[in-house]
Amino acid sequence: MYCSSTHSTPRTLATTGGSCLAAAWTTERTWSTPRAARREVAEESGIILPDLGHKLWVRESRFHYKGRDHHRIEHVFLSRTPSTTPQAPLKPTENEKTGLIERRWWSATELRHCQDDLLPDNLAELLDDLLTGCLNGTPLTLIS
Fold this sequence. Notes:
The protein is α/β, with parallel strands linked by helices. The chain contains 5 helices and 7 strands, in the order E-E-H-H-E-E-H-E-H-E-H-E.
C-alpha cells in the first residue's frame, strides 16, 4: 500500500501499487498484463515475483489529475511471497516521488481502521472477502 498526497487537496490516498501498460506494448505482444504487474511489483516494492496468482478484480476509473482527464483500467492479482525484503532496487517515477508519503505493508486490521481515502474505496471489504475465500473465482468488475 502507498500513501500519497494529491497536491490539489489536503486529502491523503491509500492505494495499491501499479502503473501504466501502454497500448503499444500489448499490440506488439511484448508485454502482457501479468508481466507488467510483476514488473510494477519489482519497481515499486523491490520484490521479484516468479508468477502471479489469479486475477481478483478489474477496476475502471476516470479522474482529473494535473490538468488532464484520465481513464484508467487496473488489473489486480493475488500474489504471495516468502519475504517482504526487497530483492531489487526501487524505481519510482518522478510523479511517485513527488506525492509519496509512505510505502509499507498494512495488516488487515490497519486497513479496516484507515482514515485516509482508499482506492478502491471498498478495499478493506475486498480484503476481508479475499481472506474468507469469497474472491477465488471470476474476477470482479469495479467501476468508480
